[in-house]
């Protein structure tokens, strides 16, 4: 998967590590090579227990600038490390293209 561990994405967790059964935030930052008029981030766990995509809207960002969005996520159950896919879509000329993605482990 060419999206795994894309170095262009900067990911942060608050708190880090997340506290079981409490809300946490995933921060996603990226410097864009092409200007985008808006965009969004999808966050989904491999096992399908976590699907949250509508909360993280990216503002218009000029080429060479970076955006930072903080995505609020419901609590994860107290499970072993859960791989989470993070994918970033940017609106370039009216079409949403994948501009970055990575995979993290929540705990």
Provide keyphrases for this structure.
107 residues; Immunoglobulin-like; single chain; 15238_t:CDS:1; mainly beta; 4-stranded antiparallel β-sheet; 0% helix; 7 strands
Mean pLDDT: 82
Main β-sheet, in a few words?
Answer: 4 strands, antiparallel
Number of strands: 7
Count of helix runs: 0
CATH topology category name:
Immunoglobulin-like
Order of helices and strands: EEEEEEE
Strand order, sheet with most strands:
4-3-6-7
CATH structural class: Mainly Beta
Shape: elongated
Span of the ends, CA to CA? 22 Å
Low-confidence stretches: none
| Helical percentage | under 10%
Work out the strand percent.
Answer: over 45%
Q: Provide the gyration radius in Å.
A: 14 Å
Overall structural class, as computed from helix and strand content, comes to mainly beta
Under the CATH scheme, the architecture is: Sandwich
Describe, in plain words, how this protein is organized in 3D.
The chain is built from no helices and 7 strands. The chain has 107 residues and is mostly beta strands. It has a single domain (9-105), classed as Sandwich (Immunoglobulin-like). The strands form 2 sheets. Strands 4-3-6-7 form a 4-stranded antiparallel sheet, with no helix packed on it. A 3-stranded antiparallel sheet has the order 1-2-5, with no helix packed on it. A hairpin with a 5-residue loop joins strand 3 and strand 4 (51-58). The mean pLDDT is 82.
């Amino acid at each position: 998967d060419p999206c795994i561990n894309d170095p262009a994405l900067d990911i942060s967790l608050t708190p880090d590590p997340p506290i079981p059964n409490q809300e946490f935030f995933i921060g996603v930052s990226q410097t864009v090579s092409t200007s985008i008029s808006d965009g969004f981030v999808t966050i989904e766990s491999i096992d399908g227990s976590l699907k949250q995509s509508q909360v993280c809207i990216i503002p218009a960002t000029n080429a060479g600038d970076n955006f930072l969005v903080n995505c609020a996520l419901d609590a994860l159950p107290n499970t072993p490390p859960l791989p989470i896919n993070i994918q970033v879509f940017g609106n370039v000329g009216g079409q949403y293209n994948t501009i970055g993605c990575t995979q993290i482990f929540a705990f």
